[in-house]
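Rotation project, supervised by the postdoc (A.L.). Task for the rotation student: set up a whole-complex structure prediction and record inputs and outputs verbatim in this book. Inputs entered:
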Amino acid sequence: MQSDWLFIGLFLLIVALFPGAPIFLAGLISPHRSNTQKSQTYECGLETVGDTWVQFRVQYYIFALTFLVFDVELVFLFPWAVAFGQLSMFGVLSGVIFILILFVELLAAWRKGVLEWA
Amino acid sequence: MNFISDPITFIANWLGNLLLSWGLSQTFVTVILKFIGAGLVGTFGFALVIFTIWLERKLYGRIQDRLGPNRVGPWGIFQTFPDMIKIFTKEYITPVGADKVVYNLAPILSVSAVLLTWAVIPFAPTIVGTEVNVGVLYLVAVGAIGALGIILAGWSSNNKYSLLGAFRAVAQVVSYEVPMVLALLVPVLLGRSMGVNSLVNAQSVWFIVLSPIAALIFFTSSMAETGRAPFDLLEAESELVAGYQTEYSGLKFGMFYVGEFLHAFTISALTATIFFGGWRGPWTEQVPILGVAWFFIKTFIVYFVVVLIRISMPRLRIDQMLNFNWKFLTPLALVLLVLTAVLDKAFYLVLPSLNLLEAAIPWVRAGMHLLLNLFIVIITVQLLKSYKIKSVQVVAKPKPIAVAPEPPASVIS
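Outputs recorded:
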Protein backbone atom coordinates (compact mmCIF):
# COMPACT_ATOMS: atom_id res chain seq x y z
CA MET A 1 0.00 0.00 0.00
CA GLN A 2 2.66 2.50 1.05
CA SER A 3 4.97 1.34 -1.71
CA ASP A 4 2.20 2.16 -4.23
CA TRP A 5 2.27 5.76 -3.14
CA LEU A 6 6.06 5.65 -3.06
CA PHE A 7 5.88 4.81 -6.76
CA ILE A 8 3.62 7.77 -7.43
CA GLY A 9 5.90 10.06 -5.44
CA LEU A 10 8.93 8.98 -7.45
CA PHE A 11 6.92 9.14 -10.64
CA LEU A 12 5.95 12.72 -9.83
CA LEU A 13 9.64 13.69 -9.63
CA ILE A 14 10.53 11.90 -12.86
CA VAL A 15 7.54 13.27 -14.71
CA ALA A 16 8.36 16.83 -13.69
CA LEU A 17 11.93 16.24 -14.85
CA PHE A 18 10.97 14.95 -18.31
CA PRO A 19 9.61 18.25 -19.67
CA GLY A 20 11.61 20.41 -17.26
CA ALA A 21 15.11 19.22 -18.10
CA PRO A 22 14.85 19.65 -21.91
CA ILE A 23 13.38 23.13 -21.47
CA PHE A 24 16.31 24.04 -19.22
CA LEU A 25 18.91 22.51 -21.57
CA ALA A 26 17.39 24.16 -24.63
CA GLY A 27 17.59 27.45 -22.76
CA LEU A 28 21.35 26.93 -22.42
CA ILE A 29 22.07 26.24 -26.09
CA SER A 30 19.48 28.45 -27.79
CA PRO A 31 20.37 32.06 -28.75
CA HIS A 32 19.60 34.97 -26.40
CA ARG A 33 19.17 38.00 -28.59
CA SER A 34 16.26 39.80 -27.10
CA ASN A 35 15.33 43.39 -27.79
CA THR A 36 12.42 45.59 -26.85
CA GLN A 37 10.65 45.18 -30.17
CA LYS A 38 10.93 41.41 -30.12
CA SER A 39 9.56 40.97 -26.66
CA GLN A 40 6.48 43.11 -27.24
CA THR A 41 3.13 41.45 -26.70
CA TYR A 42 1.78 40.04 -29.95
CA GLU A 43 -1.41 41.59 -31.21
CA CYS A 44 -1.60 41.16 -34.98
CA GLY A 45 1.06 43.78 -35.67
CA LEU A 46 -0.47 46.57 -33.63
CA GLU A 47 0.68 47.90 -30.29
CA THR A 48 -1.46 46.64 -27.43
CA VAL A 49 -3.85 49.15 -25.98
CA GLY A 50 -4.54 49.23 -22.28
CA ASP A 51 -4.27 46.52 -19.67
CA THR A 52 -4.39 42.84 -20.63
CA TRP A 53 -6.23 41.62 -17.58
CA VAL A 54 -9.49 43.25 -18.56
CA GLN A 55 -13.01 42.66 -17.34
CA PHE A 56 -14.56 39.64 -18.96
CA ARG A 57 -17.92 38.06 -19.53
CA VAL A 58 -19.53 36.94 -16.33
CA GLN A 59 -20.67 33.73 -18.09
CA TYR A 60 -17.21 32.18 -17.85
CA TYR A 61 -17.23 32.71 -14.11
CA ILE A 62 -20.75 31.35 -13.67
CA PHE A 63 -19.90 28.17 -15.57
CA ALA A 64 -16.84 27.69 -13.38
CA LEU A 65 -19.02 28.11 -10.28
CA THR A 66 -21.60 25.61 -11.55
CA PHE A 67 -18.77 23.19 -12.24
CA LEU A 68 -17.46 23.63 -8.71
CA VAL A 69 -20.80 22.69 -7.16
CA PHE A 70 -20.98 19.53 -9.26
CA ASP A 71 -17.37 18.49 -8.85
CA VAL A 72 -17.44 18.72 -5.07
CA GLU A 73 -20.59 16.65 -4.86
CA LEU A 74 -19.46 14.07 -7.40
CA VAL A 75 -16.43 13.16 -5.32
CA PHE A 76 -18.80 11.98 -2.58
CA LEU A 77 -20.32 9.48 -5.00
CA PHE A 78 -17.09 7.53 -5.49
CA PRO A 79 -17.10 5.79 -2.08
CA TRP A 80 -20.75 4.92 -2.63
CA ALA A 81 -19.97 3.34 -6.01
CA VAL A 82 -17.02 1.36 -4.61
CA ALA A 83 -19.05 -0.03 -1.69
CA PHE A 84 -21.98 -0.75 -3.97
CA GLY A 85 -21.72 -4.55 -3.58
CA GLN A 86 -22.24 -4.44 0.19
CA LEU A 87 -25.01 -1.85 0.17
CA SER A 88 -28.60 -2.68 1.03
CA MET A 89 -31.42 -1.36 -1.14
CA PHE A 90 -31.76 1.45 1.38
CA GLY A 91 -28.14 2.47 0.83
CA VAL A 92 -28.61 2.43 -2.92
CA LEU A 93 -31.73 4.58 -2.69
CA SER A 94 -29.94 7.07 -0.45
CA GLY A 95 -27.32 7.46 -3.14
CA VAL A 96 -30.02 7.77 -5.78
CA ILE A 97 -31.69 10.55 -3.79
CA PHE A 98 -28.32 12.31 -3.56
CA ILE A 99 -27.97 12.11 -7.35
CA LEU A 100 -31.55 13.33 -7.80
CA ILE A 101 -30.71 16.38 -5.67
CA LEU A 102 -27.83 17.00 -8.08
CA PHE A 103 -30.27 16.68 -10.95
CA VAL A 104 -32.65 19.17 -9.37
CA GLU A 105 -29.69 21.52 -8.96
CA LEU A 106 -28.97 21.21 -12.64
CA LEU A 107 -32.60 21.90 -13.53
CA ALA A 108 -32.69 24.88 -11.19
CA ALA A 109 -29.55 26.30 -12.79
CA TRP A 110 -31.09 25.69 -16.20
CA ARG A 111 -34.32 27.42 -15.21
CA LYS A 112 -32.39 30.39 -13.78
CA GLY A 113 -30.71 30.83 -17.15
CA VAL A 114 -27.24 30.10 -15.80
CA LEU A 115 -26.55 27.68 -18.64
CA GLU A 116 -27.45 30.15 -21.38
CA TRP A 117 -24.69 31.78 -23.40
CA ALA A 118 -26.49 35.02 -24.04
CA MET B 1 6.55 -17.98 -13.68
CA ASN B 2 9.27 -17.96 -16.30
CA PHE B 3 11.13 -15.50 -18.43
CA ILE B 4 9.21 -15.99 -21.66
CA SER B 5 5.68 -15.56 -20.35
CA ASP B 6 6.31 -12.77 -17.86
CA PRO B 7 9.71 -11.11 -18.34
CA ILE B 8 9.11 -7.92 -16.36
CA THR B 9 8.20 -9.64 -13.09
CA PHE B 10 11.04 -12.12 -13.64
CA ILE B 11 13.64 -9.38 -14.07
CA ALA B 12 12.23 -7.37 -11.15
CA ASN B 13 12.41 -10.39 -8.83
CA TRP B 14 15.91 -11.26 -10.01
CA LEU B 15 17.14 -7.70 -9.52
CA GLY B 16 15.50 -7.45 -6.10
CA ASN B 17 17.11 -10.68 -4.93
CA LEU B 18 20.47 -9.60 -6.34
CA LEU B 19 20.38 -6.31 -4.46
CA LEU B 20 19.24 -8.06 -1.27
CA SER B 21 22.12 -10.51 -1.57
CA TRP B 22 24.49 -7.52 -1.65
CA GLY B 23 23.34 -6.76 1.88
CA LEU B 24 21.09 -3.78 1.15
CA SER B 25 18.03 -3.25 3.37
CA GLN B 26 14.57 -4.25 2.13
CA THR B 27 13.28 -0.65 2.15
CA PHE B 28 16.18 0.60 0.06
CA VAL B 29 15.73 -2.18 -2.49
CA THR B 30 12.01 -1.35 -2.78
CA VAL B 31 12.83 2.31 -3.39
CA ILE B 32 15.38 1.42 -6.09
CA LEU B 33 13.01 -0.97 -7.84
CA LYS B 34 10.16 1.52 -7.72
CA PHE B 35 12.46 4.22 -9.05
CA ILE B 36 13.53 2.05 -11.99
CA GLY B 37 9.90 1.15 -12.66
CA ALA B 38 8.79 4.76 -12.56
CA GLY B 39 11.65 5.77 -14.84
CA LEU B 40 10.74 3.09 -17.35
CA VAL B 41 7.04 3.97 -17.42
CA GLY B 42 7.83 7.67 -17.74
CA THR B 43 10.38 7.14 -20.50
CA PHE B 44 7.97 4.90 -22.33
CA GLY B 45 5.20 7.48 -22.18
CA PHE B 46 7.49 10.28 -23.27
CA ALA B 47 9.04 8.24 -26.09
CA LEU B 48 5.62 7.17 -27.29
CA VAL B 49 4.82 10.72 -28.34
CA ILE B 50 7.66 10.66 -30.90
CA PHE B 51 5.86 7.84 -32.63
CA THR B 52 2.32 9.19 -32.24
CA ILE B 53 3.27 12.58 -33.73
CA TRP B 54 4.54 10.79 -36.83
CA LEU B 55 1.50 8.49 -36.93
CA GLU B 56 -0.96 11.33 -36.61
CA ARG B 57 0.71 13.44 -39.28
CA LYS B 58 0.79 10.44 -41.60
CA LEU B 59 -2.89 9.65 -41.01
CA TYR B 60 -3.74 13.32 -41.37
CA GLY B 61 -1.94 13.42 -44.71
CA ARG B 62 -3.40 10.19 -46.02
CA ILE B 63 -6.97 11.13 -45.19
CA GLN B 64 -6.49 14.50 -46.91
CA ASP B 65 -5.11 12.73 -49.99
CA ARG B 66 -1.55 13.87 -49.32
CA LEU B 67 1.54 11.77 -48.64
CA GLY B 68 2.34 13.14 -45.20
CA PRO B 69 5.93 12.97 -43.91
CA ASN B 70 7.90 10.71 -46.29
CA ARG B 71 11.52 11.91 -46.43
CA VAL B 72 13.37 10.92 -43.25
CA GLY B 73 13.62 7.16 -42.88
CA PRO B 74 11.20 4.57 -44.26
CA TRP B 75 7.73 6.16 -44.66
CA GLY B 76 9.11 9.25 -42.93
CA ILE B 77 9.07 7.48 -39.59
CA PHE B 78 12.03 9.49 -38.22
CA GLN B 79 10.53 12.84 -39.25
CA THR B 80 10.00 13.82 -35.60
CA PHE B 81 13.72 13.75 -34.76
CA PRO B 82 14.83 16.59 -37.09
CA ASP B 83 11.81 18.57 -35.93
CA MET B 84 12.86 18.02 -32.33
CA ILE B 85 16.43 19.13 -33.01
CA LYS B 86 15.20 22.22 -34.79
CA ILE B 87 12.83 23.26 -32.02
CA PHE B 88 15.56 22.58 -29.46
CA THR B 89 17.76 25.34 -30.90
CA LYS B 90 15.07 28.00 -31.11
CA GLU B 91 15.15 31.11 -28.98
CA TYR B 92 12.81 31.65 -26.05
CA ILE B 93 10.96 34.93 -26.40
CA THR B 94 9.30 35.97 -23.19
CA PRO B 95 6.83 38.83 -23.66
CA VAL B 96 7.07 41.99 -21.59
CA GLY B 97 5.01 41.87 -18.45
CA ALA B 98 4.61 38.11 -18.36
CA ASP B 99 4.39 36.47 -14.96
CA LYS B 100 7.73 34.63 -15.24
CA VAL B 101 7.28 31.82 -12.72
CA VAL B 102 3.80 30.86 -13.86
CA TYR B 103 4.77 31.35 -17.51
CA ASN B 104 7.59 28.81 -17.22
CA LEU B 105 5.62 26.41 -15.05
CA ALA B 106 2.66 26.06 -17.43
CA PRO B 107 4.27 23.92 -20.22
CA ILE B 108 5.85 21.62 -17.63
CA LEU B 109 2.50 21.17 -15.90
CA SER B 110 0.63 20.42 -19.10
CA VAL B 111 3.02 17.58 -20.03
CA SER B 112 3.47 16.10 -16.57
CA ALA B 113 -0.26 16.02 -15.93
CA VAL B 114 -0.72 13.75 -18.95
CA LEU B 115 2.33 11.63 -18.17
CA LEU B 116 1.14 11.09 -14.59
CA THR B 117 -1.84 9.17 -15.93
CA TRP B 118 0.45 6.40 -17.16
CA ALA B 119 1.35 5.46 -13.57
CA VAL B 120 -1.91 3.54 -13.11
CA ILE B 121 -2.59 2.19 -16.60
CA PRO B 122 -2.10 -1.60 -16.66
CA PHE B 123 -0.27 -2.89 -19.74
CA ALA B 124 -0.63 -6.55 -18.82
CA PRO B 125 -1.93 -8.47 -15.77
CA THR B 126 1.44 -8.14 -14.05
CA ILE B 127 2.90 -5.13 -15.83
CA VAL B 128 1.39 -2.08 -14.18
CA GLY B 129 3.13 0.99 -12.82
CA THR B 130 1.24 0.83 -9.58
CA GLU B 131 -2.15 -0.48 -8.54
CA VAL B 132 -3.51 2.25 -6.27
CA ASN B 133 -6.86 1.46 -4.68
CA VAL B 134 -8.17 4.92 -5.64
CA GLY B 135 -6.97 4.70 -9.25
CA VAL B 136 -10.00 6.26 -10.94
CA LEU B 137 -10.07 9.15 -8.51
CA TYR B 138 -6.36 9.61 -9.18
CA LEU B 139 -7.08 9.76 -12.93
CA VAL B 140 -9.70 12.47 -12.39
CA ALA B 141 -7.40 14.46 -10.11
CA VAL B 142 -4.45 14.26 -12.50
CA GLY B 143 -6.65 15.17 -15.46
CA ALA B 144 -7.63 18.39 -13.73
CA ILE B 145 -3.98 19.48 -13.48
CA GLY B 146 -3.80 19.54 -17.28
CA ALA B 147 -6.61 22.09 -17.43
CA LEU B 148 -4.74 24.10 -14.82
CA GLY B 149 -1.65 24.19 -17.07
CA ILE B 150 -3.69 25.70 -19.90
CA ILE B 151 -5.30 28.29 -17.64
CA LEU B 152 -1.94 29.29 -16.15
CA ALA B 153 -0.40 29.62 -19.62
CA GLY B 154 -3.17 31.88 -20.85
CA TRP B 155 -3.23 34.00 -17.75
CA SER B 156 0.50 34.58 -17.39
CA SER B 157 1.30 35.50 -21.02
CA ASN B 158 0.10 39.11 -20.77
CA ASN B 159 -1.63 38.75 -24.12
CA LYS B 160 -5.29 39.26 -24.84
CA TYR B 161 -5.57 36.29 -27.17
CA SER B 162 -3.97 34.03 -24.60
CA LEU B 163 -6.30 35.32 -21.96
CA LEU B 164 -9.33 34.62 -24.16
CA GLY B 165 -8.00 31.10 -24.63
CA ALA B 166 -7.73 30.70 -20.87
CA PHE B 167 -11.32 31.95 -20.42
CA ARG B 168 -12.51 29.40 -22.88
CA ALA B 169 -10.48 26.73 -21.09
CA VAL B 170 -12.33 27.60 -17.89
CA ALA B 171 -15.68 27.27 -19.62
CA GLN B 172 -14.89 24.24 -21.77
CA VAL B 173 -12.22 21.95 -20.31
CA VAL B 174 -13.45 22.46 -16.81
CA SER B 175 -17.13 21.98 -17.69
CA TYR B 176 -16.52 18.75 -19.56
CA GLU B 177 -15.01 17.25 -16.44
CA VAL B 178 -18.51 16.83 -14.96
CA PRO B 179 -19.89 14.30 -17.51
CA MET B 180 -16.47 12.61 -17.61
CA VAL B 181 -16.50 11.96 -13.88
CA LEU B 182 -20.14 10.85 -14.03
CA ALA B 183 -19.37 8.44 -16.86
CA LEU B 184 -16.39 7.08 -14.91
CA LEU B 185 -18.69 6.38 -11.96
CA VAL B 186 -20.60 3.80 -14.01
CA PRO B 187 -17.66 1.37 -14.50
CA VAL B 188 -16.63 1.95 -10.87
CA LEU B 189 -20.14 0.97 -9.85
CA LEU B 190 -20.22 -2.05 -12.15
CA GLY B 191 -16.72 -3.21 -11.20
CA ARG B 192 -17.13 -2.42 -7.47
CA SER B 193 -13.62 -1.02 -7.35
CA MET B 194 -11.60 2.11 -8.06
CA GLY B 195 -8.33 0.36 -8.88
CA VAL B 196 -7.75 0.44 -12.62
CA ASN B 197 -6.28 -3.07 -12.80
CA SER B 198 -9.13 -4.53 -10.76
CA LEU B 199 -11.56 -2.78 -13.11
CA VAL B 200 -9.91 -4.64 -15.97
CA ASN B 201 -10.12 -7.85 -13.96
CA ALA B 202 -13.85 -7.26 -13.43
CA GLN B 203 -14.52 -7.04 -17.17
CA SER B 204 -15.34 -10.66 -17.95
CA VAL B 205 -17.82 -8.90 -20.21
CA TRP B 206 -16.43 -5.61 -21.51
CA PHE B 207 -18.02 -2.56 -19.93
CA ILE B 208 -18.80 -1.14 -23.36
CA VAL B 209 -21.33 -3.96 -23.70
CA LEU B 210 -22.77 -3.23 -20.28
CA SER B 211 -22.91 0.51 -20.74
CA PRO B 212 -22.25 1.85 -24.23
CA ILE B 213 -23.70 5.24 -23.27
CA ALA B 214 -21.17 5.69 -20.47
CA ALA B 215 -18.37 4.74 -22.86
CA LEU B 216 -19.55 7.30 -25.43
CA ILE B 217 -19.96 10.04 -22.84
CA PHE B 218 -16.51 9.33 -21.43
CA PHE B 219 -14.96 9.26 -24.89
CA THR B 220 -16.62 12.51 -26.01
CA SER B 221 -15.90 14.48 -22.89
CA SER B 222 -12.31 13.32 -22.62
CA MET B 223 -11.85 14.33 -26.26
CA ALA B 224 -13.13 17.75 -25.30
CA GLU B 225 -10.60 17.76 -22.47
CA THR B 226 -7.72 17.32 -24.89
CA GLY B 227 -8.69 20.59 -26.57
CA ARG B 228 -8.29 19.32 -30.13
CA ALA B 229 -10.59 19.65 -33.12
CA PRO B 230 -13.61 19.62 -33.08
CA PHE B 231 -13.23 21.00 -29.54
CA ASP B 232 -10.19 23.23 -30.17
CA LEU B 233 -11.77 26.47 -29.03
CA LEU B 234 -8.85 27.15 -26.70
CA GLU B 235 -6.46 27.59 -29.60
CA ALA B 236 -8.84 28.31 -32.47
CA GLU B 237 -6.42 29.53 -35.14
CA SER B 238 -8.94 31.59 -37.06
CA GLU B 239 -10.14 33.45 -33.98
CA LEU B 240 -7.42 33.57 -31.34
CA VAL B 241 -4.13 33.29 -33.31
CA ALA B 242 -2.96 30.29 -31.25
CA GLY B 243 -5.03 30.73 -28.11
CA TYR B 244 -3.29 30.11 -24.81
CA GLN B 245 0.06 29.29 -26.46
CA THR B 246 0.35 32.46 -28.59
CA GLU B 247 3.30 33.88 -26.64
CA TYR B 248 5.24 30.64 -26.30
CA SER B 249 8.22 29.86 -28.46
CA GLY B 250 10.96 27.28 -28.78
CA LEU B 251 10.74 24.17 -26.68
CA LYS B 252 8.19 25.69 -24.32
CA PHE B 253 5.76 25.73 -27.23
CA GLY B 254 7.01 22.26 -28.18
CA MET B 255 6.04 20.95 -24.76
CA PHE B 256 2.45 22.08 -25.25
CA TYR B 257 2.53 20.27 -28.56
CA VAL B 258 3.89 17.11 -26.93
CA GLY B 259 1.32 17.36 -24.17
CA GLU B 260 -1.53 17.63 -26.65
CA PHE B 261 -0.46 14.64 -28.75
CA LEU B 262 0.27 12.53 -25.70
CA HIS B 263 -3.10 13.46 -24.22
CA ALA B 264 -4.87 12.20 -27.32
CA PHE B 265 -3.08 8.88 -27.04
CA THR B 266 -3.66 8.71 -23.30
CA ILE B 267 -7.41 9.10 -23.58
CA SER B 268 -7.47 6.27 -26.11
CA ALA B 269 -5.49 4.13 -23.68
CA LEU B 270 -7.92 5.02 -20.88
CA THR B 271 -10.97 4.25 -23.00
CA ALA B 272 -9.41 0.93 -24.04
CA THR B 273 -8.59 0.08 -20.43
CA ILE B 274 -11.80 1.07 -18.73
CA PHE B 275 -14.36 0.14 -21.39
CA PHE B 276 -12.69 -2.29 -23.81
CA GLY B 277 -11.16 -4.69 -21.31
CA GLY B 278 -7.57 -3.37 -21.40
CA TRP B 279 -5.18 -6.33 -21.56
CA ARG B 280 -8.00 -8.87 -21.68
CA GLY B 281 -7.89 -11.27 -24.62
CA PRO B 282 -7.31 -14.91 -25.42
CA TRP B 283 -4.39 -16.67 -23.65
CA THR B 284 -3.49 -13.82 -21.29
CA GLU B 285 -3.84 -16.18 -18.29
CA GLN B 286 -1.07 -18.44 -19.61
CA VAL B 287 1.16 -15.77 -21.15
CA PRO B 288 0.73 -12.46 -19.29
CA ILE B 289 3.05 -10.63 -21.70
CA LEU B 290 0.49 -11.15 -24.44
CA GLY B 291 -1.72 -8.64 -22.60
CA VAL B 292 0.56 -5.85 -23.83
CA ALA B 293 -0.27 -6.75 -27.42
CA TRP B 294 -4.03 -6.80 -26.76
CA PHE B 295 -3.82 -3.52 -24.88
CA PHE B 296 -2.00 -1.77 -27.70
CA ILE B 297 -4.22 -3.21 -30.43
CA LYS B 298 -7.29 -1.84 -28.64
CA THR B 299 -5.60 1.46 -27.86
CA PHE B 300 -4.54 2.04 -31.45
CA ILE B 301 -8.02 1.27 -32.76
CA VAL B 302 -9.48 3.87 -30.40
CA TYR B 303 -6.66 6.27 -31.27
CA PHE B 304 -7.48 5.91 -34.96
CA VAL B 305 -11.06 6.95 -34.21
CA VAL B 306 -9.79 9.94 -32.23
CA VAL B 307 -7.63 11.07 -35.17
CA LEU B 308 -10.43 10.43 -37.62
CA ILE B 309 -12.81 12.62 -35.61
CA ARG B 310 -10.15 15.33 -35.38
CA ILE B 311 -9.70 15.37 -39.12
CA SER B 312 -13.29 15.17 -40.26
CA MET B 313 -15.19 17.49 -37.91
CA PRO B 314 -15.48 21.28 -38.08
CA ARG B 315 -15.03 23.38 -34.96
CA LEU B 316 -18.02 23.99 -32.69
CA ARG B 317 -19.15 27.35 -31.37
CA ILE B 318 -18.73 27.91 -27.65
CA ASP B 319 -22.46 28.16 -26.89
CA GLN B 320 -23.07 24.93 -28.82
CA MET B 321 -20.32 23.20 -26.88
CA LEU B 322 -21.59 24.32 -23.50
CA ASN B 323 -25.18 23.50 -24.40
CA PHE B 324 -24.09 20.05 -25.48
CA ASN B 325 -22.29 19.57 -22.19
CA TRP B 326 -24.73 20.98 -19.65
CA LYS B 327 -28.04 20.29 -21.36
CA PHE B 328 -27.32 16.94 -22.95
CA LEU B 329 -24.32 15.04 -21.59
CA THR B 330 -24.69 15.88 -17.90
CA PRO B 331 -28.43 15.07 -17.53
CA LEU B 332 -27.94 11.92 -19.63
CA ALA B 333 -25.06 10.78 -17.43
CA LEU B 334 -27.03 11.47 -14.25
CA VAL B 335 -30.04 9.49 -15.48
CA LEU B 336 -27.78 6.67 -16.64
CA LEU B 337 -26.05 6.51 -13.27
CA VAL B 338 -29.32 6.36 -11.32
CA LEU B 339 -30.90 3.70 -13.53
CA THR B 340 -27.72 1.59 -13.66
CA ALA B 341 -27.43 1.63 -9.88
CA VAL B 342 -31.06 0.63 -9.33
CA LEU B 343 -31.00 -2.08 -12.00
CA ASP B 344 -27.74 -3.61 -10.80
CA LYS B 345 -28.94 -3.76 -7.19
CA ALA B 346 -32.31 -5.17 -8.22
CA PHE B 347 -30.56 -7.80 -10.35
CA TYR B 348 -28.42 -9.01 -7.45
CA LEU B 349 -31.46 -9.06 -5.14
CA VAL B 350 -33.44 -11.23 -7.55
CA LEU B 351 -30.45 -13.38 -8.54
CA PRO B 352 -30.74 -16.13 -5.83
CA SER B 353 -34.25 -17.01 -6.96
CA LEU B 354 -33.31 -17.29 -10.64
CA ASN B 355 -31.15 -20.48 -10.44
CA LEU B 356 -28.81 -19.34 -13.21
CA LEU B 357 -25.67 -21.16 -14.22
CA GLU B 358 -22.56 -19.63 -12.68
CA ALA B 359 -21.03 -18.91 -16.09
CA ALA B 360 -24.20 -17.29 -17.42
CA ILE B 361 -24.55 -14.65 -14.69
CA PRO B 362 -22.22 -11.98 -16.20
CA TRP B 363 -23.87 -12.38 -19.60
CA VAL B 364 -27.41 -12.09 -18.23
CA ARG B 365 -26.32 -9.03 -16.27
CA ALA B 366 -24.69 -7.54 -19.38
CA GLY B 367 -27.83 -8.20 -21.42
CA MET B 368 -30.03 -6.44 -18.88
CA HIS B 369 -27.73 -3.43 -18.75
CA LEU B 370 -27.58 -3.32 -22.53
CA LEU B 371 -31.38 -3.32 -22.71
CA LEU B 372 -31.49 -0.49 -20.18
CA ASN B 373 -29.02 1.49 -22.31
CA LEU B 374 -31.08 0.89 -25.44
CA PHE B 375 -34.17 2.07 -23.56
CA ILE B 376 -32.36 5.28 -22.50
CA VAL B 377 -31.18 5.85 -26.07
CA ILE B 378 -34.71 5.52 -27.45
CA ILE B 379 -36.14 7.94 -24.86
CA THR B 380 -33.32 10.42 -25.52
CA VAL B 381 -33.84 10.30 -29.27
CA GLN B 382 -37.57 10.94 -28.80
CA LEU B 383 -36.86 13.90 -26.52
CA LEU B 384 -34.32 15.30 -28.97
CA LYS B 385 -36.80 15.00 -31.83
CA SER B 386 -39.42 17.08 -30.01
CA TYR B 387 -36.73 19.64 -29.13
CA LYS B 388 -35.66 19.91 -32.75
CA ILE B 389 -39.19 20.57 -34.01
CA LYS B 390 -39.58 23.39 -31.51
CA SER B 391 -36.34 25.08 -32.43
CA VAL B 392 -37.00 24.97 -36.17
CA GLN B 393 -40.43 26.65 -35.92
CA VAL B 394 -40.60 29.71 -38.17
CA VAL B 395 -41.57 32.79 -36.18
CA ALA B 396 -42.46 35.06 -39.08
CA LYS B 397 -42.56 34.74 -42.84
CA PRO B 398 -39.57 36.31 -44.55
CA LYS B 399 -40.35 39.71 -46.02
CA PRO B 400 -40.01 39.86 -49.81
CA ILE B 401 -37.43 42.39 -50.94
CA ALA B 402 -39.51 43.61 -53.88
CA VAL B 403 -43.19 42.97 -54.52
CA ALA B 404 -44.11 41.85 -58.02
CA PRO B 405 -46.42 44.45 -59.66
CA GLU B 406 -50.04 43.51 -60.21
CA PRO B 407 -50.58 42.46 -63.81
CA PRO B 408 -52.88 44.86 -65.74
CA ALA B 409 -56.50 43.73 -65.86
CA SER B 410 -56.60 43.65 -69.65
CA VAL B 411 -54.01 40.86 -69.79
CA ILE B 412 -56.04 38.60 -67.49
CA SER B 413 -59.14 38.67 -69.63
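Student's summary: DSSP finds four helices and no strands in chain A.
Supervisor addendum: Helices of chain A lie at 2-29, 58-75, 77-82, 89-112.
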